[in-house]
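Record now logged underneath.
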Amino acid sequence: MNEASRLAVLVDGAPLDPEAARALWTEFSAHMDENRGDFAGFAKKKGWQSVAPEYRQGKAVLVVKTGAPPAKAAPPAKPAPPAKPAKPPAKKGPAPQAKKGPPGKRRR
């Protein structure tokens, strides 16, 4: 196993191609040589949330979290139509009486 295949980079869980991973590891190593243990400084310099080296399955893995929202798997559903205002509850009691006209006149 050569050195390049023992290095990996995950950016928000997605692996970088081997050449890009090697280049990032080289940049990361140079920063660490000048600023021992300054993971946060390297992340800030790159505009990322965090960077941390880990050892996984025989590989040195640089785990990068950019803080970007996760990629959307599907377009969002259409928003629900606005809710109609609730009708006030019906008043309980006797049913309203029909108004009667003036005395002496009948409705037909």
About this structure: Helices lie at 18-34, 39-46. Residues 4-65 form one domain.
